[in-house]
Write a structure and sequence with these properties.
This protein is mainly alpha-helical and 332 residues long. It has helices spanning 18-32, 45-48, 55-71, 89-98, 103-107, 110-118, 125-139, 153-170, 215-223, 241-254, 258-264, 270-297, 299-328; strands spanning 4-10, 37-43, 80-83, 145-147, 178-180. The chain has a 3-stranded parallel β-sheet with strand order 1-2-3. A two-stranded parallel ribbon has the order 4-5. α7 packs across α8 (153-170). The structure holds tryptophanyl-5'AMP.
Length: 332
C-alpha cells in the first residue's frame, strides 16, 4: 500500500515557541510514529529572508532549529529532514507556480497584510510571494497531509487552489494536499495578550515560552500570564481568553481533553490552574534541553543529517519539477 506523504516546515528564525511545539512539531512527532506515513520536514530558511535577517543569526538559528527538531523526536532515519535552501527545486517550482497565481489572491492574504503593516519599510516581493513558495514546498513532494497551526491554514488553501488550477490546465500533475490541525492547541495565544497568537517575533519575552526556557522561567511566565475577570475556570475563548489559553496548554501538555481539565478545576482558583499548567509544561519540555545540548555540540553530525536529508528530498523534488516543466512545454 502506498504510504501517506506528510509534509510540513518551520521557519528557523528567532526561538522555537511553545506555540510552534504544541501547534505543529509535537504533532509531527506523533505522525512520524505511524507506519502508514512517510514524513518530510523542512527548515524553511528561504521564507525567513522575507524579513531582514542578520547572516550570522540566520546560520546559527538554522543549526539550532535542526537540533531542536531532532530533540523533539524527529528522527532522520525514519523521516526526511532537510534545509529548504539545500534543495534548489523549491525556488524553481515557486517561479513556475507564480505564473499560475494572481496578484489579487496574494494581496488578500492575512499574513501579508499583517507583515506589511509591521514591516512597512520593507514590503518586498518575497513577502507577497511567500505563499507561492510554500505551495512549491508542499507540491514538490506529492504531499497528502500538511499538519500546521491555524495561522498557516489560509496559505494551505492557496496551495490547494494553485494545484487544482494547474491540474485543470494540464491534467493531473500535483497531488492536492489536505491541511491538518492538531486537536488541541492549533492556536496557542500570547501569555500577555491572550487575544493574539503566541509569536516568536513578540518583543515581550514574558508573552512567549521558548522550548529551551528553564523550569524557573516557564513557571514565572505562566504565573504572570494575564487572566480574566471573575474567578471561575471555564473554557470560553470569547469571554475568558486567558484562562482558555492556559486550559489548552495544560490539556495539550498532559495529552488530556479540555473538558477533563475543566472538570478537574471546578471550584478551584486561577492560581491552581497556573501551578498545574507550569508543572505540565516543564515536564513536557524537560527532555528537550538535555537532548538539545548534546545535538548542538556536534555540528558536524548535525550538518551531515541535513545533507543526507537534502539528498533524499531532492530525488523526489527533481522528479516532480520535471513533470511540471514537461506539462508546461519546456524542452527537457
Ligand atoms: P512558522 O515557522 O511560523 O511556524 C511553524 C508551525 O508552527 C505553527 N504555529 C503555531 N501553532 C499554534 N499556536 C501558535 N501560537 C503557533 N505559532 C506557530 C504554525 O502554524 C506552523 O505550522 N510558512 C510556515 C512554514 C512553512 C510551511 C511550508 C509549513 C514553509 N513552507 C510548507 C507547512 C508546509 C511558517 O512560517 O511557519
Amino acid at each position: 500500500m502506498k504510504k501517506r506523504v506528510v509534509y510540513s516546515a518551520i521557519q528557523p528564525s528567532g526561538i522555537m515557541t511553545l506555540g510552534n511545539y504544541i501547534g505543529a512539531v509535537k504533532n509531527w512527532h506523533e505522525l512520524q510514529a505511524n507506519d502508514n506515513n512517510s514524513c518530510i520536514f523542512a527548515l524553511a530558511d528561504l521564507h525567513t529572508i522575507t524579513v531582514r535577517q542578520d547572516p550570522d543569526a540566520l546560520r546559527r538559528n538554522t543549526k539550532s532549529f535542526l537540533a531542536l527538531l531532532l530533540a523533539a523526536g524527529i528522527d532522520p532515519s525514519s523521516s526526511v529532514v532537510y534545509i529548504q535552501s539545500h534543495v534548489h527545486e523549491h525556488a524553481e517550482l515557486a517561479w513556475l507556480l507564480n505564473c499560475y497565481t494572481y496578484v489579487g489572491e496574494m494581496n488578500r492574504m492575512t499574513q501579508f497584510k499583517d507583515k506589511s503593516a509591521k514591516h512597512s519599510d520593507n514590503i518586498n516581493m518575497g513577502l507577497m510571494d511567500y505563499p507561492v513558495l510554500m505551495a512549491a514546498d508542499i507540491l514538490l513532494y506529492d504531499s497528502d497531509v500538511v499538519p500546521v497551526g491555524v495561522d498557516q491554514m489560509q496559505h494551505l488553501e492557496i496551495a490547494r487552489d494553485i494545484a487544482g488550477r494547474f491540474n485543470n490546465s494540464y491534467g493531473e500533475t500535483f497531488v492536492v494536499p489536505t491541511g491538518q490541525l492538531t486537536k488541541t492547541g492549533a492556536k496557542i495565544m500570547s501569555l500577555q495578550d491572550p487575544t493574539a497568537k503566541m509569536s516568536k517575533s513578540d518583543p515581550n519575552p514574558n508573552a512567549v515560552i521558548s522550548v529551551l526556557d528553564s523550569a524557573d522561567d516557564i513557571a514565572r511566565k505562566i504565573k504572570r500570564a494575564v487572566t480574566d475577570s471573575g474567578s471561575e475556570i471555564v473554557y470560553d475563548v470569547e469571554n475568558k481568553p486567558g484562562v482558555s489559553n492556559l486550559l489548552t496548554i495544560l490539556a495539550s501538555a498532559e495529552g488530556a481533553t479540555i473538558e477533563d481539565e475543566v472538570k478537574r478545576f471546578k471550584g478551584k482558583m486561577y492560581g491552581h490552574l497556573k501551578v498545574a499548567c507550569a508543572e505540565a509544561v516543564v515536564e513536557m519540555l524537560r527532555p528537550f534541553r538535555e537532548r538539545y545540548d548534546a545535538l548542538i555540540a556536534d555540528e558536524g553530525a548535525l550538518l551531515a543529517f541535513a545533507r543526507d536529508g537534502a539528498a533524499k528530498a531532492e530525488q523526489i523534488a527533481a522528479r516532480t519539477l520535471a513533470r511540471a516543466k514537461d506539462k508546461i512545454g519546456f524542452v527537457l
